[in-house]
């Protein structure tokens, strides 16, 4: 009698994701020591749930990319502002030094 393998649902879904992402069922089954027929049954069983999860993950990934691009843009603006502020501070110091030289009693 063959031994039945009890696989957790999350593991099944992970394998279904692997198949739906473009790998052949036979290759994934062989890689994990399963029957291709069993894996095919799991794909049919969990395909709708996994597709919904994959779509959600794709949306999250796109949002993450947009956030990263926005962060990069804000970082550039911040760096430019800091540079400009530094230049203004140096300019103020130079002007104060010139005023002190000309008017030593000035505060």
Automatic annotation (TrEMBL):
It holds the Pfam family HTH_Tnp_1. The keyword Coiled coil applies. The keyword Coiled coil applies. It comes from the Bacteria. Keywords: Coiled coil. Residues 47-74 form a coiled coil. GO terms for molecular function: DNA binding; transposase activity. One of its GO terms (biological process) is DNA transposition. InterPro entries: Homeodomain-like_sf (IPR009057), Transposase_8 (IPR002514). This is Transposase.
């Amino acid at each position: 009698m063959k031994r039945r393998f009890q696989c957790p649902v999350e593991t099944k879904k992970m394998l279904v994701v692997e198949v739906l992402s473009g790998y052949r069922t036979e290759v994934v089954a062989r890689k994990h020591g399963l029957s291709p027929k069993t894996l095919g049954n799991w794909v049919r069983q969990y395909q709708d749930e996994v597709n919904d999860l994959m779509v959600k993950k794709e949306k999250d990934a796109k949002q993450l990319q947009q956030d990263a691009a926005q962060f990069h843009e804000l970082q550039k603006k911040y760096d430019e502002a800091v540079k400009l502020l530094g230049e203004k501070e140096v300019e103020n110091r130079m002007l104060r030094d010139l005023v002190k030289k000309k008017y030593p009693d000035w505060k």
